[in-house]
């Protein structure tokens, strides 16, 4: 009862002091002041007062989760997956700079869905959203490899934003933090070294120059180093990081861009990268499922999972970026022309450099940024595939969606959102 009141009425004025009694008899705790109240709420949430958890026999639905970036491509899937597959959920807080209208339809279900419009770079907004949550899933981030945003902004959102989330957990007593990292913290590196069927322990020379992978690597490091820090109330923070490879599925903006590009070119796309360059791809539903499982198991297996990184993987086939996209765009009427790249590689390098130069010269007037730049070309042209079972060993992960299901769902999404090219 008290936990609910504390977490739902953050802005309401509070009485100066609060006594907590179990079964109306014994006084368990007396607190004064705002932070004391949050600490109390947290201690109740953390199961320090099992009598209270049992009171009201709401044992099944007692957890409060916060998903930052919950209205993004991955975040929306995490939110929907939690509502479907986390029966212990009582409240789900969805924190995002831009809230999606689809959130409204979720508010009628049995779980309280709280939409919070906020900015991860604003420490006070993050702290208010985190207070009283058991678990934070931090997916918010600026995903920009096309040079649309300044390096400073990318750093601010991805690194400072993550630091704010960590500090909010520490201050408010939230113990479990799951961070959405990226394969990009490992590679591909600028030297073009292949990472072939690698796992979390595979040695690789990670060299980051581009603002996006730099920011993800720094943020991941902050999260992992925060594992074990004492949070308000004295218990240790348990953190871990998930590293998806290229995510695809319903809502994938780059897939939509390729589709539109193909339509503009009369249903044709031209091969730019050799078919032999393989990319790790993972279905968004399986990435979301991994987040749900990690969040669920982090408490029980804190010693094993705390401070760990996990690649996100499933049964999607290893293919080149373009051939993989054709698994979905082909059935929507597009054709990929050429068994070999249409243009020689040196010309692509030149075009990518030209794009970068133009972008720099026209800055900040450039409204849209081309997909081809030296960084995206290097990533697209370097094999990076993952083969691991660490997530299965540590927290029993098995993909929820088969490759066939993932493929079908993605095709349906392209067809229904954009219409068919046929
Ligand atoms: N898309 C991909 O292939 C991969 C993505 N990731 C990571 O997954 C996470 C989610 O990525 P996507 O869903 O693809 O991106 P997205 O851009 O669709 O979602 C990110 C969400 O974060 C929100 N956001 C951005 N700045 C914010 C701020 N200052 N305060 C609050 N919210 C803010 C955005 O509004 C958006 O809803 C990111 O952290 C990204 O680095 C990792 C590997 C691959
Ligand atoms: C845009 C690239 C493909 C176009 C190449 C061209 C112009 C020659 O046709 C994409 C190729 C690989 C993608 C990246 C990869 O999937 C890994 C990623 C992980 C993330 O965390 C964010 C997204 C991305 C960097 C992804 C971005 C697009 C590609 C570079």
TrEMBL record:
| Transmembrane portions of the chain | 342-362
Q: Does the keyword Transferase apply?
A: no
Q: What is its main location?
A: endoplasmic reticulum
Write one Gene Ontology MF term. cholest-5-ene-3-beta,7-alpha-diol 3-beta-dehydrogenase activity
The scientific name of the source species is Tupaia chinensis (Chinese tree shrew)
Listed under catalytic activity are:
7alpha,25-dihydroxycholesterol + NAD(+) = 7alpha,25-dihydroxy-4-cholesten-3-one + NADH + H(+); (25R)-cholest-5-en-3beta,7alpha,26-triol + NAD(+) = (25R)-7alpha,26-dihydroxycholest-4-en-3-one + NADH + H(+); 7alpha-hydroxycholesterol + NAD(+) = 7alpha-hydroxycholest-4-en-3-one + NADH + H(+); (24S)-7alpha-dihydroxycholesterol + NAD(+) = (24S)-7alpha,24-dihydroxycholest-4-en-3-one + NADH + H(+)
What exactly does this protein do?
The 3-beta-HSD enzymatic system plays a crucial role in the biosynthesis of all classes of hormonal steroids. HSD VII is active against four 7-alpha-hydroxylated sterols. Does not metabolize several different C(19/21) steroids as substrates. Involved in bile acid synthesis. Plays a key role in cell positioning and movement in lymphoid tissues by mediating degradation of 7-alpha,25-dihydroxycholesterol (7-alpha,25-OHC): 7-alpha,25-OHC acts as a ligand for the G protein-coupled receptor GPR183/EBI2, a chemotactic receptor for a number of lymphoid cells.
Identification of the protein by name: 3 beta-hydroxysteroid dehydrogenase type 7
* Chain ranges of the 3-beta hydroxysteroid dehydrogenase/isomerase domain: 66-336
What is the membrane topology here? Multi-pass membrane protein
């Amino acid at each position: 009862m008290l936990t609910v009141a504390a977490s739902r009425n953050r802005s309401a004025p509070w009485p100066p002091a609060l006594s907590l009694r179990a079964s109306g008899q014994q006084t368990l705790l007396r607190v004064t002041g705002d932070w004391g109240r949050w600490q109390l709420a947290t201690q109740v949430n953390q199961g320090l007062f099992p009598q209270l958890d049992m009171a009201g026999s709401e044992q099944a639905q007692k957890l409060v989760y916060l998903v930052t970036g919950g209205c993004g491509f991955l975040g929306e899937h995490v939110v929907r997956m939690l509502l479907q597959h986390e029966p212990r959920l009582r409240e789900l807080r969805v924190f995002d700079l831009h809230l999606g209208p689809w959130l409204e339809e979720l508010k009628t279900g049995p779980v309280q869905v709280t939409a919070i419009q906020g900015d991860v770079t604003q420490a006070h907004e993050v702290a208010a959203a985190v207070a009283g949550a058991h678990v934070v899933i931090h997916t918010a981030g600026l995903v920009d490899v096309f040079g649309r945003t300044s390096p400073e902004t990318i750093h601010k959102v991805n690194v400072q934003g993550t630091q704010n989330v960590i500090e909010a957990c520490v201050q408010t007593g939230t113990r479990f933090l799951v961070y959405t990292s990226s394969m990009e913290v490992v590679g591909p590196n600028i030297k073009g070294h292949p990472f072939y069927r690698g796992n979390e322990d595979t040695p690789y020379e990670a060299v980051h120059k581009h603002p996006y992978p730099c920011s993800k690597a720094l943020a991941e490091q902050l999260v992992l180093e925060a594992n074990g820090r004492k949070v308000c109330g004295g218990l240790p923070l348990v953190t871990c990081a998930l590293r998806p490879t290229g995510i695809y599925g319903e809502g994938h903006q780059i897939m939509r861009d390729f589709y539109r590009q193909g339509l503009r070119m009369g249903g044709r796309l031209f091969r730019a990268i050799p078919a032999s360059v393989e990319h790790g791809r993972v279905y968004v539903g399986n990435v979301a499922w991994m987040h749900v499982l990690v969040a669920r198991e982090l408490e029980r297996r804190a010693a094993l999972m705390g401070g760990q990184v996990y690649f996100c993987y499933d049964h999607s086939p290893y293919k080149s970026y373009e051939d993989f996209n054709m698994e979905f765009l082909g059935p929507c009427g597009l054709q990929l022309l050429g068994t070999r790249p249409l243009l020689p590689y040196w010309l692509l390098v030149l075009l990518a450099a030209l794009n970068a130069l133009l972008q720099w010269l026209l800055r900040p007037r450039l409204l849209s940024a081309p997909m081809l730049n030296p960084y995206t070309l290097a990533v697209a042209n370097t094999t990076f595939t993952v083969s691991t079972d660490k997530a299965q060993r540590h927290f029993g992960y098995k993909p929820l969606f088969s490759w066939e299901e993932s493929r079908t769902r993605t095709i349906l999404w392209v067809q229904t959102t954009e219409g068919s090219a046929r």
